[in-house]
Amino acid sequence: MKWRTHPADVLPLWVAEMDVPLAQPVVRAVTEAVALGDTGYPAGSAYAEALSLFAAQRWGWDGLAVERTAIVPDVMLGVVEMLKLVTGPGDAVVVNPPVYPPFFLFVEHMDRRIAEAPLGADGRLDLAVLEETYRRAVSGGGRAAHLLCSPHNPTGTVHTAAELAAVAGLARRYGVRVVADEIHAPLTGPGAEFVPYLAVPGAQDGLSLMSASKGWNLAGLKAALAVAGPAAAADLALLPEEVSHGPSHVGVLAHTAALREGTGWLDALLAGLDDNRRLLRALLAERLPEVVYRPGEATYLAWLDCRALGLGADPAAVFLERGRVALSPGPDFGTGGDGHVRLNLATSAEILTEGVRRMAAAVG
Ligand SMILES: Cc1ncc(COP(=O)(O)O)c(C=O)c1O
After folding, report:
1. Which SUPFAM superfamilies does the entry mention (predicted)?
2. Which ligand 1 atom sits closest to the C-alpha of 301?
3. pTM assigned to the model
4. Could you report the per-residue pLDDT of 183-215, keeping only the tens digit for each?
């Protein structure tokens, strides 16, 4: 999608796909399946077992129980299914803008109401705002859920154990069910520690969505896992059987291979992304010093505050038209998005450098 959507003269630094060669274990798993004609429907729990082991080794969390998982087609369809389990039509879903635009689109498509609890100016969860939003969300007597993005897209914020425990405490107090989208968790950089939501005290009735798709660039090989805390197992058990028909078997093989054998590749990727964050910071300081960039601790996305450039609510439109560089428009991310763009830095140093050159040319 990244390289196909715009005309050839546009440099694409938008949608969350990486310009990387795939991890060899993934290539091997997919190639062997195709050579063998092993291209039918998915079966078994190998993906969940691989994720459970990865979670224990990577995050020191040994609470991911395979029997409390369900395979889903991808993270967003998994989010929709989890929200259906814990809310009804007309109920509120709390989100923390600026946030991944499909959170709004999918929630509205399923007849739930969005309730915004914006991040603070520091890009972190604002617990006072969250509490007030929870209070209002349940005040009419309906049920409510909190769709938590952890780590956070677009800011790259990694929520701390204390923040997550505070969320769990508030959720318990107001009867709000937390659904954590943890797709970016493997992309947590060396300077930060990812804490799974279900690992914090008080989060027993939480639900999480995890996948190898962002970490290993497998969005075209559809598969993801829904994970329930102990007190949400009964909810997850109500997931309709047909949801498990959606994931791709070849996708499951690829994701499993990534989690089992792709950690060396992932570590090399994270080092490269760290280099790119530093490069982006240097490029912006040199060519666009008015742009405010606070490098995130996770994801390969850079959230750029372009308000000082005076390009209006949607600077991405100006960068595209005048600079021929495609970035994600800030206003799509909800409250706090105006005047911002999201830049995807998972590419080569050459392309990143050319991208910033084009941004600078657009305003020069
Ligand atoms: C926070 C977040 N959730 C979900 C997705 C999409 O995941 P999937 O393709 O598995 O639905 C993305 C993709 O960028 C994302 O950033």
Report:
1. PLP-dependent transferases
2. 16
3. 0.98
4. 999 999 989 999 999 999 999 999 999 999 999
